Amino acid sequence: xxxxxxxxxxxxxxxxxxxxxxxxxxxxxxxxxxxxxxxxxxxxxxxxxxxxxxxxxxxxxxxxxxxxxxxxxxxxxxxxxxxxxxxxxxxxxxxxxxxxxxxxxxxxxxxxxxxxxxxxxxxxxxxxxxxxxxxxxxxxxxxxxxxxxxxxxxxxxxxxxxxxxxxxxxxxxxxxxxxxxxxxxxxxxxxxxxxxxxxxxxxxxxxxxxxxxxxxxxxxxxxxxxxxxxxxxxxxxxxxxxxxxxxxxxxxxxxxxxxxxxxxxxxxxxxxxxxxxxxxxxxxxxxxxxxxxxxxxxxxxxxxxxxxxxxxxxxxxxxxxxxxxxxxxxxxxxxxxxxxxxxxxxxxxxxxxxxxxxxxxxxxxxxxxxxxxxxxxxxxxxxxxxxxxxxxxxxxxxxxxxxxxxxxxxxxxxxxxxxxxxxxxxxxxxxxxxxxxxxxxxxxxxxxxxxxxxxxxxxxxxxxxxxxxxxxxxxxxxxxxxxxxxxxxxxxxxxxxxxxxxxxxxxxxxxxxxxxxxxxxxxxxxxxxxxxxxxxxxxxxxxxxxxxxxxxxxxxxxxxxxxxxxxxxxxx
Length: 572
Description:
Elements (H helix, E strand, L loop, with lengths): L1 H16 L12 E4 L2 E3 L7 E2 L1 E5 L2 E6 L1 H4 L8 E4 L4 E4 L1 E2 L5 H7 L3 E2 L11 H14 L1 H6 L2 E6 L12 H5 L7 E5 L4 E4 L1 H6 L12 E5 L6 E6 H11 L5 H16 L3 E9 L1 H13 L5 E6 L1 H4 L2 H6 L10 E3 L1 E5 L34 H13 L3 E6 L2 H13 L1 H4 L7 E4 L5 H10 L2 E4 L3 H4 L1 H8 L2 H4 L5 H6 L5 E2 L10 H10 L16 H7 L2 H6 L17 E4 L16 E6 L2 E5 L3
Parallel strand pairs: 1-6, 2-7, 8-15, 9-10, 10-11, 15-16, 16-17, 18-19, 19-20, 20-21, 21-22
Antiparallel strand pairs: 1-4, 2-3, 4-5, 7-23, 11-12, 12-14, 13-14, 23-24, 24-25
């Protein structure tokens, strides 16, 4: 009986690949055999072999069944029991920013970096100025990812702290949220920021005790309006080095598809050129910052596409409705537990747009059938998103728009069903439970609200798909930390934050693969290991579905394969 079934399988498979004959006419390019292959496909969730052809998955099944596809040139990979999963998809991050992160001062706190005091921040910037060829070449010092919630002083560095490092060259240090920055006096002078400069709409220039002189700390649109002007006009060789360094960070963590989640105009013009000239080993989906570009003629010429050209495509546009909860600029309906210095006791953050202005950009996206990503962290910003999508119902009727809520940190339970009914897809950020969970509980929102950040449990209860993401370079694109935080929800201090929102390793893996593919309209070509999809694979040293949950963060990526091309191999 077994032989009969095997021969039937062999005949059917070969007939599907080429004409039936005594020989395999269409052998596989690669055979992965004797493995623990998690397909993330409900029909055949676990197999031991996988065959590829022309960058696509040809077949999955048992080793002895697929060996019939071995030809004289077929490459055979004996997995020796290692675990294989689909290529990871970072459902929201900033590809260009990860590249820049590799070239600037690392101001991350423990466990990812050395900066836990302002003195240590100053020391890192000094070292960067002394040793970085980028500083010497472009005469600007940039640091990424200080975190006031983790600094011993529990405050932002100001211009006086940075002036103590240098008053000769401009210095800017970016907050880990990406929504604030601190500048020295030289940088403020070059950018024309003075006591007479008014706060821009949707932003705040923090002031000294006189209420006029800029302190050096810039929030939201005040930060965005000058930060990118200080980024050097890198040469093409420097950019290639920068982006390749960023790409390696993704590949070494098993990501085969990544977002460039708020693309400025210069990057938008450059990435397709670099993709064509030097190529990337990850697939990059760009979502231009529509309000930042704000040019109808430019937007009309953008080549939005569902298909990749040289591994790059523009998938839609991005809007930002509020700021950062850890930076205390996210927009809440209730006040912050501990309001920032100088703010009234009822301070609850602020919006980036009025409803009228936000609706203008949303209508442009809906009218042009562009997928829309909306950054919304606080529950008031999520209310605004829900309200405006509801108002746009006529434009969206009968359309699979898959508008995406980015982050959704403080989504209320009553908002979950409304998001589902409106077809808004949640791209969540459970890594906050580790990095800022204690801060959210003790300073940002209090114990009750903090329990429900990234409320994945409520979404599982509603049978909703959602994705999880790194938001790199806010955090490193650490895929195992992503799985760990979604499954365990432990904070830096080791407490569990939101027990009811812990999800199974199976659902966490889906959120990093097939559900993330669905978010991008790519579920038919990516996200699971089934015949016909891209051969995007990750080889792991342990099985994330069976390992002790608290060990998830320690799993190692052994190899990353994109379109059947090995693009990363671990060398210990």
